[in-house]
Structure formats: C-alpha cells, structure tokens
From TrEMBL:
The lineage of its organism: Bacteria, Pseudomonadati, Bacteroidota, Bacteroidia, Bacteroidales. This is 4-hydroxy-tetrahydrodipicolinate reductase. Residues 1-103 form the Dihydrodipicolinate reductase N-terminal domain. It comes from Heminiphilus faecis. Keywords: Amino-acid biosynthesis, Diaminopimelate biosynthesis, Lysine biosynthesis, NAD, NADP, Oxidoreductase. Belongs to the DapB family.
Amino acid sequence: MKIALIGYGKMGKAIERIALSRGHEIVSRIDVNNQDEFESPSFASADVAIEFTTPSTAVANYKRAFAAGVPVVSGSTGWLDAMPDIKALCDEGKATFFWTSNFSLGVNLFFAVNRYLASLMEGFPQYHPAMKEIHHIHKLDHPSGTAITLAEGIMSCDKAVKGWTEEPANSADNIVIAHERIGEVPGTHIISWDSPVDTLTIMHEAKSREGFALGAVVAAEWTAGKKGFLTMDEMMHSMIERPQLLDIIK
Ligand SMILES: NC(=O)C1=CN([C@@H]2O[C@H](COP(=O)(O)OP(=O)(O)OC[C@H]3O[C@@H](n4cnc5c(N)ncnc54)[C@H](OP(=O)(O)O)[C@@H]3O)[C@@H](O)[C@H]2O)C=CC1
Ligand SMILES: O=C(O)C1=N[C@H](C(=O)O)C[C@H](O)C1
C-alpha cells in the first residue's frame, strides 16, 4: 500500500518504521517546511494519508488531503470542535476519514472496561468518578483526547454523570479530569470511583508509542478502499466478527 505521512514528528517516525516493516511504501512525507507537497503527484498517488500533527494544524491538513482525493487516518487531538464539519464532508461523499483519540488495542479494550464499570456504577450512587491523565512535557493539549473519550464513555453509561470538567470545584454532577506533564511519559490514564468506604481504580499505562503507531498502520490498511466516516469501534467490530483479521494486530 502507498502511504503518505502528514507530520513527521514522534508519531510520524514511529508509523514509518512500522509501515515499512509491514511492506508498505512511503510515497510522501509532509512537514511544516514542504506544504507544497499536498499538491504533488506523489501525495495524490497515496492510498491513504496518516496524519499526526498538532491541534491547530490538523483540520487544514485534512481538507488539503481531501482536496487531493486522499483518504485520511488521523490521531491528532485537541481539534474536536471541528468534527461536525469533517463528518459532514464525509457524509456528502467528499471525504474519507478515520479518527480515534487512541489507536492502541489496549486502550480500546480499556474503553470497553471503562464503559462496563460505569454501567455497574450507575446503580451505586455512593461512588463518584475522577480521572487523571499523565503525558510527556511536549504535549500541547489537555485534557488528552483519550481522557475525553473515557469521560464520554462514562457519561453514556452512568446518566448521573452529566459532563466533564477540569475545575475541581465543579465536581458535583461532573467527572473532574486532572492532567500532569512529566518527562517523556507516553500516556497514562487512571479512573477512580471513590465512596466513603473504599476506592476502585482502573488504569492504562502505555510503555511506548509502538501500540499507537501499530494501531494507526492497521487502521490505514483497513481504511484503504473504504469510503466515508470510519470509526475505531467499526474496525474493532469487523475484526471481532472476522477473527482471522485479528492476526494482523499481533
Ligand atoms: N490517537 C492516538 O493514538 C495518538 C495521538 N497522538 C496525537 O498526535 C499528535 C502528534 O503527536 P506527536 O507525533 O507525538 O507530536 P510531535 O510534536 O512529535 O509531531 C508533530 C509533527 O507535526 C509537524 N507539523 C506541525 N504543523 C504541521 C503541518 N501544518 N503540516 C505537517 N506537519 C506539521 C511538527 O513539525 P514541527 O515540530 O517542525 O512544528 C511535528 O514534526 C498530537 O495531537 C497527539 O496528541 C499522539 C499519540 C497517539
Ligand atoms: O500526545 C500524546 O502523546 C498522546 N495523545 C493522545 C491523546 O491525547 O489522548 C493519545 C496518547 O495518550 C498519546
């Protein structure tokens, strides 16, 4: 498969290594200094572009890739206010787009565990949830995209939790998300349900960026040839329904 990389930072480089090891060809690499490449024949020849840049640049990158007719798989976070516009472009048949706040298999299992625990807790109002995410000092956004997805999962399963906030004073009906930035931590998410007598805690701790990068390449392989607005849940379900596809995530 021909892959274009938009963003050649920590994730772009990790994705390149894994894509090459899986037999793919990198036909284009776009960074801050070669933006003309979006209009090049090599970029247009890509089966899919994998985009990992910044909160302030991601949406413009998507639109330039769509204009070139190239489907986009992206993990950039911190731009979600624009999601309705991007979805509308896909629904109008003008774009193909796959985004998730976290491409790692472990985090997607953690999303399911989180929703299951929240649905149990709906029956036990003495427990109140709180979240902490810890990342490296270079991260531009907070809370992490993964923390927002986890909070949305809790809100969808426990109707007593009305929203999320970063303000500890607003904790009554909300889940408070705290963030810490420490060294080169790849990504840790901790959810605690606290009652007057005890605390239940679940945690996911990434050991490196390999899981994110592998998930992004697998998503690109799954996206090639498809159309429209594609989701991680859809990909995970199609793999569970066809277990032979799970072999590719090993
Ligand atoms: N969904 C997931 O599973 C994951 C998501 N992420 C998210 O991915 C994003 C990138 O993470 P990471 O790779 O660690 O960050 P980096 O800062 O290491 O890389 C981002 C790269 O994008 C480049 N860039 C900036 N603007 C543009 C532009 N307009 N066009 C092309 N390239 C540009 C930067 O260049 P320069 O440095 O010169 O400015 C940099 O090389 C973040 O939003 C992060 O939250 C990260 C890991 C996993
Ligand atoms: O910036 C990062 O590094 C990460 N960002 C994603 C997020 O915001 O959730 C995913 C992962 O935790 C790493």
